[in-house]
Design a protein that fits this description.
By secondary structure, this protein is α/β, with parallel strands linked by helices. It is built from nine helices and 16 strands. The protein binds ribose-5-phosphate.
Length: 301
């Protein structure tokens, strides 16, 4: 029988780590990391990695602050003899820039994927922002396992929202919206978004009939500036209708954004726990465990 993995927590939520490690029956690894006074990263691996199947659960929101310690940890574990290295990054950053829209622009999705592939044997993540790139393995040529948030989101909606209609802001969101709608047994509608700048977004919704008499549940993979969600909320709120519920998979937003959504007329604003955030209401620990198990068994085939 395969021995349990050795699992390390780096910049990740303690509760999520505990639950995923318990689900994998993993041994907790010990890692020391801190900053030198000048801001550079110090990393020391305190557990014996030789011959082990090693998993790092790493929070990668605001990635520039976290990447160096992650790469140093991975490289050191390999030097210490780790047999296999899996990165579990519930939120995978840098995927939205997946094309050079202007000459000379860095396609960060490609470069970031290549960087991960250089240090790890396998990657497990939740609903990565794949738009023009359809397959994660195309930019990160290692074993990749994508964990869908849709089943947990649909279960949350079924338990808490009466007569929901699932609403996506744009064509990109259709993949998540359609999956959630099917699992929740609800209709769905998708809008047309135009983004003119980071904080300049408009959304048009032609099929307003689908929303009539129902509680709109807006779903997007990422809530960052909140401008996308707010544009949809403004279309649907008010006039005595049920306030739109906003559901994001990855919570990259701050309190000012939450206030913006509330001013626009949003009801509940909830997210999955891929990034530790006050809005977390949908637990994906069990789904992530399933993703890691699948990524390990694929190797055994
Ligand atoms: C865009 O392509 C994503 O799917 C999200 O719609 C976007 O990242 C949301 O960003 P913001 O909250 O800044 O409008």
């Amino acid at each position: 029988m395969k021995p349990p993995p050795l699992m390390f927590r780096l910049h990740a939520d303690e509760t999520l780590f505990g639950n995923v490690a318990a689900g994998l029956n993993a041994e907790h690894g010990s890692i020391e990391h801190r900053r030198f006074p000048d801001g550079e990263s110090y990393v020391r691996i305190l557990s014996e990695c030789a011959g082990r199947d090693v998993v790092i659960l790493c929070g990668l929101d605001h990635p520039d602050n976290k990447l160096m310690s992650l790469l140093f940890a991975a490289a050191t574990m390999t030097e210490l003899g780790a047999q296999r290295l899996t990165l579990v990054a519930p939120y995978l950053p840098y995927l939205r820039q997946d094309q050079a829209f202007h000459r000379g622009e860095s396609v960060s999705a490609r470069h970031f994927g290549a960087l991960v592939a250089r240090y790890f044997d396998a990657l497990v993540t939740v609903d990565p922002h794949l738009h023009r790139i359809h397959d994660l393995a195309a930019i990160c040529p290692i074993t990749c396992r994508v964990v869908p948030a849709a089943p947990a989101i649909a279960a949350w909606i079924k338990a808490r929202v009466a007569r929901p209609v699932i609403v996506g802001p744009d064509a990109e969101s259709r993949q998540w919206v359609a999956a959630v709608a099917e699992l929740a047994g609800a209709p769905y509608v998708v809008g047309e978004k135009v983004r003119r700048g980071d904080r300049d977004v408009t959304v048009a919704l032609t099929d307003t009939q689908a929303v009539a008499g129902r509680t709109p549940v807006l779903i997007d993979d990422i809530i960052s500036t909140g401008r996308t969600m707010a544009a949809v909320v403004e279309l649907l709120a008010g006039g005595g209708k049920a306030p739109p519920v906003c559901v994001g998979v990855h919570a990259l937003f701050d309190d000012a954004t939450l206030a913006l959504l509330q001013r626009a007329g949003a009801g509940m604003v909830v997210t999955c726990n891929t990034i530790a955030h006050a809005s977390n209401a949908i637990d994906l620990a069990a789904s992530i465990v399933g993703g890691v198990v699948a990524s390990r068994s694929r190797k055994m085939l």
